[in-house]
Amino acid sequence: MSVAVVILNWNGKNHLKTYLPSVVAHSSSAIIYLADNHSSDDSVQFVKDNYPSIKIIQNKSNDGFAKGYNDALQHVDEEYYILLNSDVEVSENWIEPVIQFMKENKVSIAQPKILSYTEKNKFEYAGAGGGFIDVLGYPFCQGRIFQEMEEDHGQYNEIKEVFWASGACMFIKASTFHDLGGFDERYFAHMEEIDLCWRAKNKGQQVYYVPKSTVYHLGGGTMQNSNPKKTFLNFRNSLLTLYKNDTSRFTFLKIIARLVLDGVAVFKLLIESGPKHALAIIRAHFSFYASQKIKTEKTTINLKGLYKGSIAFAYFAKGQKYFYQLKKGFN
C-alpha cells in the first residue's frame, strides 16, 4: 500500500513555510509531492532548499485547482492520493486511520475532521465534519451550514458515510480518480471536489468521514471571500454540478428554483457586500446557461448523504442552524 500527499501550490511560499513542517513531521508513511502551478515566487526553490525529500512536479501554467491536480497526478504512481491544501496543518497520525479504514472497507474517497486553524475549537468552512448536499444542490457540512460554524464538542466523532469530501484534504484511491476522469477542468476552482464525489456516487462508490484523523485548515489561502471571482465560481459551479449529476426527473425545475433563490442572494449581497458580488451571481447564471450541457454517466446510484429538503428553508425559515437539528430527511 503506497500513499502520496500531493500539495498544489501557486505563489504560496508563506503558506509552505508555515504548514509544511507539520506535514513533513507527521507523514512518514507517505511520499510528499509539491505540485507547483507555475509560481512566480521562489516557493519551489524554498522547498528544494529546505525539504529535499519532497518531490517536485512543475506544471507548465496556472490553470486552476482542477487542471493543476489533473496534470500533476499523471506523474504520481502511488495507490492512494491525499490532496492537501497548502494552508493545512496536520496532526500526528493523521494518515493511517483514514487509509486503514478505506482499505478495510473498500472505500474510494474519504476526509478527516477539518477544524479551523485560527479557532481550533471550531469546524472549518471547507469540509468540517464531512459534506452533504440538499435537493437543490446547495452543499453544507456536519459542523457548518452556510456561514454558521459549530464548535467541536465531539458531537461528530462517529465514522459516517457522507455525500462529498473536502478538496482541502481529500483521500482518494488513484484508480478511482483516474477512472472518473479527474476533476472537471471547467470549474477552475471551487466545488470541483463535490462534482467528483457526486460522479463517484452515481457509479455506486462511497464517500466517508473519518474523524479519528484531524487537520486544521486556514481557508481562503488562494482566493479570499472578498473576491467576486470566488462568488462567481461558487454559484456557477454549483449549478453545473446540479445539472450534471442530478438523478431525478426534475432537474429543470430545480434549476428554476435555484434561479429564484439565487436571485434572493443577489439582493442580500447587494446590501451586505456591494454590487460586485451581486453581479458575480448574475454572471454565474449567464455563464451556466451558455455552457455545454453534459450529463454524467449514472450506473449504480448511491444517494447516501442527500438531504431531500431545502437547506435554505431549514436554515432561514425553520431556524435550524446546526447539522444535528436536521433529524430527518436524509437518504
Structure described in brief:
By secondary structure, this protein is α/β, with parallel strands linked by helices. 36% of the residues lie in helices and 20% in strands. α6 (192-201) runs parallel beside α7 and α7 packs parallel to α9 (275-290).
Q: What do you see in this structure?
A:
With 331 residues, the protein is of the alpha/beta class. It has a domain at 3-217: Spore Coat Polysaccharide Biosynthesis Protein SpsA, Chain A, CATH 3.90.550. It has ten helices and 14 strands. The protein has helices at 13-25, 43-50, 64-72, 96-105, 174-179, 192-201, 228-245, 251-272, 275-290, 311-317, and strands spanning 3-9, 31-36, 55-58, 80-84, 88-90, 109-116, 131-134, 139-141, 144-145, 148-149, 160-162, 169-173, 207-217, 306-307. The strands form three sheets. Strands 1, 2, 3, 4, 5, 6, 11, 12 and 13 form a nine-stranded mixed sheet that branches. It has a three-stranded mixed sheet with strand order 8-7-14, with no helix packed on it. The chain is globular, with a radius of gyration of 19 Å.
